[in-house]
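User: Structure please.
Assistant: Input sequence and predicted structure:
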Amino acid sequence: GDGFWLDDFDRDQRRMDRVSASIRSLPTDTYIDHYVQRRRFAASWWITRQRASQTGDNAPEQTLIAERDVPSGAFVNRVECNENIDRCVAIVSMGGQDASSVWLKQYNEWYQADFWPSKSTGVIDANGNIWFTAADSETDQTQSGYPRSFYQIDVTGHTERLFHTSANHIGIQVFELNGQIVLQEWLTYSHTRYWFVHDQQLHALPIQSSAVLRGFDGSRWYATLRDTWRDHSAETLVSFRMDGSIASDVKAVFVPNDSQTIDTVRVTNDRVWLSVLEDVSSRLFVIDATGDRQELFASPDIRYITLEYADEDGAIVRTESPVNPPVQYRIQARGDQYQHTEVARALSGFDSDGMVSEQYFATSHDGTLIPYFIVRDEAQQTPQPTVMWLYGGFSMNQVPKYLGPAGGLWVAEGGSYVVANVRGGAEYGAEWHRSALRRNKRLTIEDTIAVADDLVQRGLTSPSMLGLHGASNGGLMALATAAIAPEKFAAVAAAAPLTDMLNFPELGVGATWIEEYGDPKNPQDSAVLRSYSPLHNVTAASPAPAYFISVAANDDRVGPEHARRFAERLDCLGLNFYYWEVTQGGHSGVSNYDDYEARQVMTYQFFQRWLKEE
């Protein structure tokens, strides 16, 4: 490479100051379900709880856990408490890693439970019983780093192990649905067995292993299907009763059309709330006990709706778009009438005057239409420097959320930002994901190239002004696309990427992902993996894009070896690249706001340097 790219230090320090000020001006309340996590920069944090019927300026708050309760540098991933907050369970990780510890509060004192750090989960029921997954030793983990054991601590303090999964499975996690304790046992990434607790015993839910459990209304269970089941088509939201060990009275609750997929579902005793993606934009529906369905929040200014919480009083939702910051609403349900009240509005992270969010469709090599969103300033002349974000794997949807301070500043200064909904995600349901699995993974790359070509054909950008940006699997897809079609891109930023696809099962928890990518030990899979593996396909082509690779040394998911090997390869080829490795941060690569701000600014400064008119 040619060294660090902050040539004009004063200019770039001003840019960092602007992004930092924007980030720090945003509200420190992050609403997640009925929890509110508050963070103060370089000061302290605490977590409070509110109910759907209590949100607002005068809502009572109850502190669940504070900074003094856990070690310095700890991340509280989740905390649940009983009504009196004298019994709690918290999942705490260090340095941003996936591995976490179980912390318990009994008799008003917090302490770390004596278990091996793993990807633990925990909940507490209405009676004060604590349910959690944990590993009692290093060998009590699956190959994916999840615990194998499921425990209960009753109100007397008695601890009992109720379940133990196979080491060959992905792992287990516990959650609660409308008062019902549920254990999810991942057999593979796409196949799951669900168990529910009744009379202190675990009972299997008799649904297809590919279905996704969504809710419980006190008598009926709700699930979305990935395959046809009981004459109901894939993608349908169904409900059913338990008749002994048999699922009976299976009914369709919502049947998406070909352009829709169900995103989020919240079930209460008398209503089903669901957000549906239609061509990747949200629609919000509520279905009452009579089956009557209403649509709420139908507005062209809203691109994405998050269902945060629902109870007998109504629901809490968050609306946003790439250019409109999040707004949180409380919806009060009274019979068939629904009234919404604004609860909180995030401050704008950037000046969006003149900015538009548009959706286009590119035609991939096999004729499939690939949607993408572009955010740009209409007043700016085209072509524009353009950053394309992609992921394309593991059924992860890339939805049109608020752009945020750094991306907004990029657009405000004359760039455009694209979110590509390439295959591998689930923006159109399970088949959108399955179509790009294993030996078909190259379809994701073809889709990315199709979006790039469409942007150029529309005159919105040019190859010398187009960059790719991805993280984890998205970093893999960005680097693989650039390796196969280097002439179409000027710059690629990849955070915590996979790069060595012939050895990925040996790195991090890569063995878990054979279902997604294929097995390098299988000759046919190996041939496909070699055909797009960034480490094995990047060349000193001309023209070749510049690269920005970032990773954390303690990434316990992908592992830092992928990034290090690829940087070494780029160095051997004499290509322009920048490499940034931090010691803490885990797979996300950031352990504090300073790291987050620095990476945001460096990423966009990298693109600003390399995305230029020829």
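The longest strand covers residues 324-334.
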